Backbone:
């Protein structure tokens, strides 16, 4: 059984003039110790997906259907009280901006001890010892001193290390990291990603990494999901998707990267931009920007087809697979 | 070589932190002392931008790259040094004398959500610079010009009566580019013009900037932290660290053979699609504060090759046999 299994999750936002569907029939699973990447552009719904796992979507958002099974129990149906025992304890989150997540008026030590005492019945002294141990794990220079410092006394990279230390405090099963390095410089980003990867491997923690950076996904994750307009359009092993993307959107995303083009030549570009939730196109939401779109694509959302180890939601890919099958049959 | 279009000579910029006279007073060792502090944002930068090229300035936050852009544009006045445009010194010009240069030099900013006036329609936004620089133009001429630039950046001229908030991020950045192009500039300073945009939109805007360069013969000073963009877009690259240029080279040369230890670390830190694990050169520590600059080479505290000379003496940009200019004692001495 998978550690976390999300089945047909629907998330909507109740706004004036009717509900907006932010996530539509999202299904994926995460095994123990596995690293999964969630990729997409802004507005694709990747952060909503991450937040909804811990039922953290604020009103007017709500889970309209589907299940989030963590060790067999449905998080979507749990009471606030039960959820609180899981949040931060069994499933930890790391957010994009470390300055927003740390309380500016409390010392690092106070914040860490507070998090431990919320879940464990131990003395403050013991909690402080755990906090110190985690700060050492994230390789912060002079960790004893940091416990008594305030967030503003640390640099951006160091703050994100503290956040990772806090996520590790209670030995979680899963860490959900929402764009953990977007606010940081490239050299610091490389250090933090390296650290996160090593810690997840050492402690056998599963990682759900949300990012828009395909390079980071390729370095850190084993499997990936590509999201577009609230749907998963492609999912499978990271290497397979990066090397041979099937969905036209994923192909476009990869080919639009400057490193894929000949220097000085025009880059491949996907025309248009991601639709807003208010007017999601009918059928496949990508069809107005897709070079392969047919009438079929405008009518209904394509079902997933399997190509290698990758699941893709695209009629064009389905047709190609169908053709290949027929060719093989004809040959034999 | 022909004379450069823009040349930056010995540029320095400090931002005073210490406040008014009374705020500077400190009581130390039984005596009242006056203490002044400043952020040393740029510390002696020399750059020349040749006509028709795209010179990229890269570096991490706090390295002074945006300050260079703003000082070149005259949005900040330099603490020391000179800016020359087409052979004429422009950093000390004021009012009417500066006007022709303000038309020839235009700027594109990072955040298109902040750089467009939310209370102006697109028509008004584009009209303003044209009317200001060409007060003698007839309304028909102005309208034709607006249509021309809107068309060239891929924005439907019929959308002129809309406001900025009605457009997506990529479209807003196109409008910001149209505004810069409206007065037919020769030189464009682009300060991180695509870093606020999504990947697929970044490609659209980069293509647009390259098309404009080709059709209008523009020269760019392109500020960015994204080295992948530089490799694609830049003619030459200047790598900055703590207010100094540590390496200046042709894009091809720099990416094929980075010489400065900082450039090497920076290049190795870009996550690449073919990597299965992060493999970057580890640097010790973090960027020091620009308030108290390290002595000697600003990079020595994090450099694995630093020796006594690096701690004492500031390295100058020196041409190497590969064609790059590198400010590093280790490279100069052949240790690296």
Residues:
């Amino acid at each position: 059984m998978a550690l976390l299994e999300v089945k047909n999750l629907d998330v909507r936002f109740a706004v004036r003039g009717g509900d907006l569907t932010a996530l539509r029939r999202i299904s994926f699973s995460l095994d123990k110790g596995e690293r999964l990447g969630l990729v997409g552009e802004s507005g694709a719904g990747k952060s909503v997906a991450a937040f909804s796992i811990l039922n953290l979507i604020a009103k007017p958002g709500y889970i309209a259907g589907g299940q989030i099974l963590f060790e067999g129990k449905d998080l979507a149906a749990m009471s606030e009280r039960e959820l609180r025992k899981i949040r931060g304890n069994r499933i930890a989150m790391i957010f994009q901006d470390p300055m927003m997540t740390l309380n500016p008026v409390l010392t690092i030590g106070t914040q860490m001890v507070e998090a431990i005492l919320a879940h464990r019945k131990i003395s403050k002294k013991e909690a402080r010892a755990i906090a110190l141990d985690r700060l050492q794990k994230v390789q912060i220079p002079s960790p004893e001193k940091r416990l008594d410092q305030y967030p503003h006394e640390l640099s951006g990279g160091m703050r994100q290390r503290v956040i990772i230390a806090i996520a590790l405090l209670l030995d979680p099963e899963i860490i959900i990291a929402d764009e953990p390095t977007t606010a940081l410089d490239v050299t610091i980003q490389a250090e933090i990603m390296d650290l996160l990867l090593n810690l997840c491997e050492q402690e056998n923690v599963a990682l759900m990494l949300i990012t828009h950076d395909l390079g980071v996904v390729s370095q850190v994750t084993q499997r990936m999901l590509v999201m577009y307009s609230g749907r998963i359009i492609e999912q499978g092993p990271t290497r397979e998707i990066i090397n041979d993307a099937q969905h036209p959107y994923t192909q476009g995303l990869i080919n639009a990267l400057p490193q894929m083009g000949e220097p000085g030549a025009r880059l491949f570009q996907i025309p248009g931009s991601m639709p807003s939730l208010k007017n999601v196109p009918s059928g496949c939401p990508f069809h107005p920007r897709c070079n392969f779109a047919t009438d079929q694509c405008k009518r209904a959302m394509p079902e997933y087809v399997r190509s290698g180890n990758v699941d893709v939601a695209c009629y064009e890919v389905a047709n190609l697979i169908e053709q290949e099958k027929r060719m093989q049959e004809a040959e034999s | 070589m022909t004379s450069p279009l823009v040349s930056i000579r010995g540029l320095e910029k400090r931002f005073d932190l210490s406040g008014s006279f009374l705020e500077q007073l400190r009581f130390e060792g039984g005596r009242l002392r006056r203490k002044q502090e400043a952020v040393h944002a740029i510390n002696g930068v020399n750059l020349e931008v040749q006509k028709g090229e795209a010179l990229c300035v890269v570096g991490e936050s706090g390295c002074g790259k945006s300050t260079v852009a703003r000082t070149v544009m005259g949005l900040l006045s330099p603490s020391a040094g000179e800016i020359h445009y087409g052979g004429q010194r422009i950093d000390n010009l004021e009012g009417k004398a500066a006007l022709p240069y303000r038309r020839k030099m235009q700027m594109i900013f990072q955040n298109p959500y902040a750089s467009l006036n939310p209370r102006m329609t697109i028509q008004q936004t584009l009209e303003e610079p044209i009317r200001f620089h060409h007060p003698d133009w007839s309304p028909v001429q102005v309208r034709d010009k607006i249509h021309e630039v809107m068309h060239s950046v891929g924005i439907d001229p019929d959308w002129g009566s809309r406001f900025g908030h009605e457009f997506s991020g990529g479209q807003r950045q196109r409008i910001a580019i149209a505004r810069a192009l409206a007065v037919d500039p020769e030189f464009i300073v682009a300060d991180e013009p695509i870093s606020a945009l999504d990947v697929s939109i970044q490609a659209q805007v980069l293509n647009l900037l390259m098309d404009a360069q080709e059709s209008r013969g523009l020269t760019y000073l392109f500020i960015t932290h994204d080295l992948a963009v530089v490799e694609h877009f830049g003619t030459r690259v200047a790598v900055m660290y703590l207010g100094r240029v540590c390496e200046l080279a042709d894009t091809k040369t720099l990416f094929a053979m980075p010489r400065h230890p900082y450039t090497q670390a920076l290049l190795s830190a870009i996550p690449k699609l073919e990597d299965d694990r992060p493999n970057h050169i580890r640097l010790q520590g973090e960027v020091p504060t620009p308030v108290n600059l390290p002595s000697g080479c600003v990079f020595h505290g994090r450099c694995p090759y630093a020796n006594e000379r690096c701690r004492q003496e500031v390295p100058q940009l020196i041409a190497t046999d590969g064609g790059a200019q590198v400010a590093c004692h280790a490279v100069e001495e052949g240790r690296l």
In short: Residues 210 and 233 of chain B are 8 Å apart (CA to CA). Chain B has a mean pLDDT of 90.
